[in-house]
């Protein structure tokens, strides 16, 4: 059995669907089973990664874990899960991390949280695989309110390029790694097929939506406020802004062939992602 944590989120839902498509037996954790809305074939259990008391029941009979958490408590969550998994006799943890977690000079919060989380997984003594995606294509959903209201995209750091990756491809890699041998002890850095700036993503969205859109460069403070308006807590908004500033670094514009190497299918384009999410804009 494979346990998927973060199963109600962007990546986790897709991991669940793709695992079910392989015929795997899937259990999923959520803090709110009543609203989880997961497929009927999934064994849904209530668990909070911040509360280790519920984890033994969630891990009973589990061979592999897809580990996904977020926010400042991420190192605590990963440590709780890793220790409980070791006690439960789990074989391997596949952790969703972040692109620069392996770079010790990346000291902004999100890579630092994930670096600590990866270390907790290593310290558990279990086999592991780390997936380190660059920015998600789905971050463009943050632009939907101003696109709908005024046909504009408000973003900061427009000079930077990120080889954004489709969450479906992250999930495809996760499902492959969880169901085929040979990925133990490996780090997979995941990108999309081309580096794109926010103005370039705006152009692609305009083509897909069939109406003109205008890119408006805003200050990092205004961009932070937009994230807050999206319902993201302040600590996480600060961490996201620090990560976004790194779009100006070379690292984020490097294209990695990993999605195709692992899954056998080329990484999906931002245009593909936009076509699937037209209704949101
Ligand atoms: N966005 C990016 O550009 C980007 C890039 C690289 C890496 N990442 C990483 O990707 C992860 C976020 O993935 P996502 O966008 O798919 O997530 P998401 O849509 O924000 O969903 C978060 C998931 O985490 C679960 N969760 C949160 N707190 C929990 C807790 N205390 N106990 C158990 N589960 C908890 C939620 O489950 P319930 O609410 O159902 O309990 C939910 O399923 C983060 O680790 C982030 O650092 C993001």
UniProtKB/TrEMBL annotation:
<dbReference type="Pfam" id="PF13460">
    <property type="entry name" value="NAD_binding_10"/>
</dbReference>
<feature type="domain" description="NAD(P)-binding">
    <location>
        <begin position="6"/>
        <end position="181"/>
    </location>
</feature>
<dbReference type="InterPro" id="IPR036291">
    <property type="entry name" value="NAD(P)-bd_dom_sf"/>
</dbReference>
<dbReference type="InterPro" id="IPR016040">
    <property type="entry name" value="NAD(P)-bd_dom"/>
</dbReference>
<protein>
    <submittedName>
        <fullName>SDR family oxidoreductase</fullName>
    </submittedName>
</protein>
<dbReference type="InterPro" id="IPR051604">
    <property type="entry name" value="Ergot_Alk_Oxidoreductase"/>
</dbReference>
């Amino acid at each position: 059995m494979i346990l998927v944590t973060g199963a109600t989120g962007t990546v986790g839902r897709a991991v669940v669907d793709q695992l079910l498509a392989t015929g795997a037996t899937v259990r999923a954790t959520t803090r709110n089973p009543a609203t989880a809305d997961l497929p009927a074939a999934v064994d849904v259990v209530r668990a909070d990664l911040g509360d280790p008391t519920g984890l033994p029941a969630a891990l009973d009979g589990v061979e592999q874990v897809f580990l996904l958490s977020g926010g400042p408590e991420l190192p605590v969550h990963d440590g709780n899960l890793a220790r409980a998994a070791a006690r439960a006799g789990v074989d391997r943890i596949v952790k969703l991390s972040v692109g620069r977690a392996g770079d010790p000079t990346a000291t902004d919060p999100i890579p630092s949280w994930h670096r600590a989380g990866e270390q907790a997984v290593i310290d558990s003594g279990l086999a592991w695989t780390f997936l380190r995606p660059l920015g998600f294509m789905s971050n463009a959903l943050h632009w939907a309110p101003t696109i709908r209201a005024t046909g504009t995209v408000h973003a900061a750091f427009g000079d930077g390029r990120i080889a954004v990756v489709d969450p479906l491809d992250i999930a495809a890699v996760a499902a492959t790694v969880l169901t085929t041998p040979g990925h133990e002890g490996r780090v997979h850095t995941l990108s999309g097929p081309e580096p794109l700036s926010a103005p370039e993503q705006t152009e692609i969205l305009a083509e897909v939506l069939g109406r003109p859109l205008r890119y408006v460069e805003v200050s990092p403070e205004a961009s932070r406020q937009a994230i807050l308006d999206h319902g993201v807590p302040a600590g996480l908004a600060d961490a996201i802004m620090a990560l976004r500033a790194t779009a100006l670094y070379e690292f984020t514009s490097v294209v990695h062939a990993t999605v195709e190497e692992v899954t056998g299918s080329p990484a999906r384009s931002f245009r593909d992602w936009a076509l699937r999410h037209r209704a949101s804009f």
